[in-house]
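Re: your question about mannonate dehydratase

S., sorry for the slow reply, the queue was backed up all week. Below is exactly what I fed in.
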Amino acid sequence: MKIISAKVIVTCPGRNFVTLKIMTDQGVYGIGDATMNGREKAVVAYLEDHVVPCLIGMDPRRIEDIWQYLYRGAYWRRGPVTMRAIAAVDVALWDIKAKMANMPLYQLLGGRSRDGIMVYGHANGSDIAETVDAVGQYIDLGYKAIRAQTGVPGIKDAYGVGRGKLFYEPADAALPSVTGWDTRKALNYVPKLFETLRDIYGFGPHLLHDGHHRYTPQEAANLAKMLEPYQLFWLEDVTPAENQEAFKLIRQHSVTPLAVGEIFNTIWDAKDLIQNQLIDYIRCTIVSAGGVTHLRRIADLAALYQVRTGSHGATDLSPVTMGTALHFDTWVPNFGIQEYMRHTEETDAVFPHDYHFDKGELFCGETPGHGVDIDEDLAAKYPYKPAYLPVARLEDGTMWNW
Ligand code: GCO
Ligand code: MG
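Result:
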């Protein structure tokens, strides 16, 4: 069996997606996601110029060997561009293998560990009252877990607050827009949100919050401690994870569960946080961390330390990643939760898929493969549009972490 061709498809049905389609001499094809929000074309070039030519003639059944070829063979290892390109190939090859085996992907991985995949949705509002209302709407929709973000008085466009209450798309400008940040104001406001949410909705729903790398370790420890009475499911990216020693300080002061990893690309980024038991959930997902082949290694390492998975699932991860992640989540023993930001109707139409939502859970389908395809004719109707994530500045103009 041989790979005879591979093409990179760029489409923008509401937002940009980069998709790899690998064709074989037996007529079976596989689809992989290679989207990198705001840097899409870097991965397109990496795939088209440096990966696709090497794939032609290879045996698509040799998933592990092709993974190692692309990782070790590049000499330049790791990084968000390389690992997304590897992920796209890897996912397309697992799709092909599962189609050849006439099995849904989760069966190849080892079979079902659970019935449904608990997901969390994104509730946001420009102030506490609006966020409380949005959380209520998610509860009405059947969600068991909800991430709550609020605008903060005096901060211009705080992180996580969209224009509509149920949909939020951060990459929304042809050049990065400038948002504001002020830690003191946030620390004085965010705990009140969770106090109000618990007063109104009780302790039934799981609540999550994303600090989006904004706080210093001391401020992060303070926030984690202040949020303790509200028993969050997790507090995410509360401080940047380049210096992982910082998490020791947070742990010393709080038992609020911590989640990190949506910007990690390999097991090496996650290793110390996991082994030192400084986090409770690892957020790496299929597209950003080298596909099924590599994410499985990260999850297995995490399992040794009772760290559970919590895959990133924002709208910049295409339905191909979502579908594949759901097969992964259906199998992985140490599953925690799956993020689920719904895609637009246009996106769902370009990527026909067999997963579905019911009462706070997603379910992968039984179609052989990962169950997600691309309608190329429809995709061609939505050409690439430059779209960037915002940047953040402090009140005095200093650049901050977005
Ligand atoms: C999340 C994330 C996203 C990211 C986005 C970047 O927790 O879902 O933090 O909102 O900012 O995926 O591309
Ligand atoms: Mg996040």
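Residues 80-101 form the longest helix (22 residues). The longest strand covers residues 3-11.

Happy to talk it through on Thursday.
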